[in-house]
């Protein structure tokens, strides 16, 4: 037996060919990685999935298959769906919290506008050109 076999070929107890489809994605130093995907999807299906993908996508596909398989082994009923559901709930909570904070900001801004409108010093006196050319603003209320 060749000791440089990939994890898949070691697991399947076969010779690892030079063009082994598993070899780049299931290195011999991580046998658990292939054990997970083999248990959930089967070696033949994983090989077909990798073979049908462009080479640049195979690494991510292998990572995804491994992750989903490990979650399925950990939680046989829901697998990765439980995690997705939990994340979706967190997103919904964050959206609600954001909407609540935006509403609070709108209320505070509306109160400020009402306070400013009710403040007699908010609006400067109309400029009466016929009587005077100077303006008299009372800005003291703005700086307390
Ligand atoms: Zn191999």
Summarize the structure.
This protein is mostly helical.
Structure description:
The protein has 144 residues and is mostly helical. The protein folds into 2 domains: 1-74, no CATH class; 79-119. Helix content is 59%, strand content 0%. It is built from 5 helices and no strands. The longest helix has 39 residues, at 80-118. The protein is rod-shaped, with a radius of gyration of 34 Å. The termini are far apart. Zinc ion binds at residues 5-6, 8-9, 16, 20, 22-23.
Short descriptors:
144 residues, mainly alpha, 2 domains, 5 helices, binds zinc ion
* Count of all domains: 2
Cofactors, ions and other ligands in the entry: zinc ion
Order of helices and strands: HHHHH
Which residues form runs of ≥5 with pLDDT under 50? none
Characterize the largest beta sheet: strand count, sense, and whether it forms a barrel. Answer: none
**How would the global form be characterised?**
rod-shaped
Radius of gyration: 34 Å
Strand content: under 5%
Alpha carbon gap, first and last residue: 86 Å
Extended strand count: 0
Please bin the fraction of helical residues.
Answer: 55-70%
